TrEMBL record:
Phylogenetic placement of the source organism: Bacteria, Pseudomonadati, Pseudomonadota, Betaproteobacteria, Burkholderiales
Molecular-function annotations in GO: 3-hydroxyisobutyryl-CoA hydrolase activity
InterPro entries: ClpP/crotonase-like_dom_sf, ECH_dom, HIBYL-CoA-H
Name of this chain's protein: 3-hydroxyisobutyryl-CoA hydrolase
NCBIfam families: PRK05617.1 (NF004127)
Stretch forming the signal peptide: none
Domain spans labelled Enoyl-CoA hydratase/isomerase: 13-347
GO terms under biological process: L-valine catabolic process
Keywords from the named record: Hydrolase
Length: 362
């Protein structure tokens, strides 16, 4: 178990509290294992009828995986071939699958930063989830900024948001707030952060009620955010037009031809990202749209192996977290230097089908 995961059961609700505030609740292997063990135990526990996952910190729900760990371990092993890295991604993706198919209601209080791996433990399956945002929510799948791709099931949930919003969020890594999350279908309800204690009190005192119904009813008094006025809503037609292409070079060319400020700002944002991983991400999302969550996670497990073999993620983390110079030396350095063969390599099988580390996901 992990010292950074608190667990309790009250009013037949299992509470999972992420408690690693100095690291913005970045997930370690020990935290992944603690979450998995607890959820497996509660799955068959008749005293637990639902699960709430939250943070002990106001700053972040979960900022993602522990990318400093990725760098420290990956840099010491040729092509990132570390058993610890292998274990982390295999077990994290298995946890994402467990949450997606969890048989009991699963409520995620996405207050503060929720990015990368934080999205993976919040975006549960449509049959069991309730995802709450606040005015402090800062949501993103920002992996292209560190030479990675939107994993933890991003292939599945980003490819199923309206229009081309998923492609926009994945390729740019842009951060969105509560209204955008509601509009994109990446959140279900809004509650001001100051009222979260009252919500928790309601959940712990409302015996016999459906936890999702209680949460939704509580949130109705705060319907003061109109998703139709969000950035994503107001820019929807532009996003759908420019990100409809199946290659990033065409997206960039389309944006370049548009004098609109949003288009130009988006293009400027893309210039800061890994050219290779933007291309890999778009290919990933196009593939993921027709795949199950299990197949998406298996694909991502192969992709992450290829990513560490290439080394782009190690350079990205170096620039953002280690040296903090924010000047990554991407390889290739330019979008027009990315070939289709480079992109396809990320999807080449890394194991025989019978030996894939996630072969048993159903």
């Amino acid at each position: 178990m992990s010292e950074h995961i608190q667990t309790s059961i009250k009013n037949r609700i299992g509470f999972l509290t992420l408690d690693r505030p100095k690291a913005l609740n970045s997930l370690s292997l020990q935290m992944v294992r603690a979450l998995t063990a607890t959820l497996l135990a509660w799955r068959s526990n008749p005293e637990v009828h639902a699960v709430v996952i939250r943070s002990s910190s106001e700053r972040a729900f979960c900022a993602g995986g522990d990318i400093r760990f990725f760098h420290d371990v990956g840099i010491k092993t040729p092509q990132g071939g570390s058993a610890l890295l292998e274990d982390f991604f295999t077990e994290e993706y298995a946890l994402n699958h467990l949450i997606h198919h969890y048989p009991k209601p699963y409520v995620a209080l996405m207050d503060g930063i929720v990015m990368g791996g934080g999205m993976g433990i919040a975006q549960a399956g449509p049959d069991n989830r309730m995802r709450l945002v606040t005015e402090r929510t800062k949501m993103a799948m920002p992996e292209v900024n560190i030479g990675l791709f939107p994993d933890v099931g991003g292939s599945f949930f980003l490819s199923r948001v309206p229009g081309q919003i998923g492609a926009y969020l994945g390729v740019t890594g842009e951060i969105i707030g509560a209204a955008d999350a509601l509009y994109a279908g990446l959140a279900d309800v809004y509650v001001p952060a100051a009222h979260l204690p009252a919500l928790l009190e309601a959940l712990m005192s409302d015996r016999g009620a459906d936890i999702r119904a209680t949460t939704r009813a509580f949130a109705r008094q705060f319907e003061i955010i109109d998703p139709a006025t969000s950035m994503l809503a107001t820019q929807r037609s532009l996003i759908d037009r420019h990100f409809a292409y199946d290659d990033v070079a065409s997206i960039a060319a389309s944006l370049r031809s548009d004098a609109d400020a949003f288009a130009q700002n988006t293009l400027a944002l893309m210039h800061k990202r890994s050219p290779l991983m933007m291309c890999v991400t778009l290919a990933q999302l196009r593939r993921g749209a027709a795949m199950s969550i299990a197949d998406c996670l298996r694909m991502e497990r192969t992709m992450v192996r290829r990513c560490f073999e290439h080394g782009e993620v190690l350079e990205g983390v170096r620039a953002v977290v280690i040296d903090k110079d924010n000047a990554p030396r991407w390889n290739p350095a330019r979008l027009d230097e990315v070939s289709q063969d480079m992109v396809d390599r990320f999807f080449d099988a890394a194991w025989p089908q019978h030996a894939h580390p996630l072969r048993n996901l159903g």
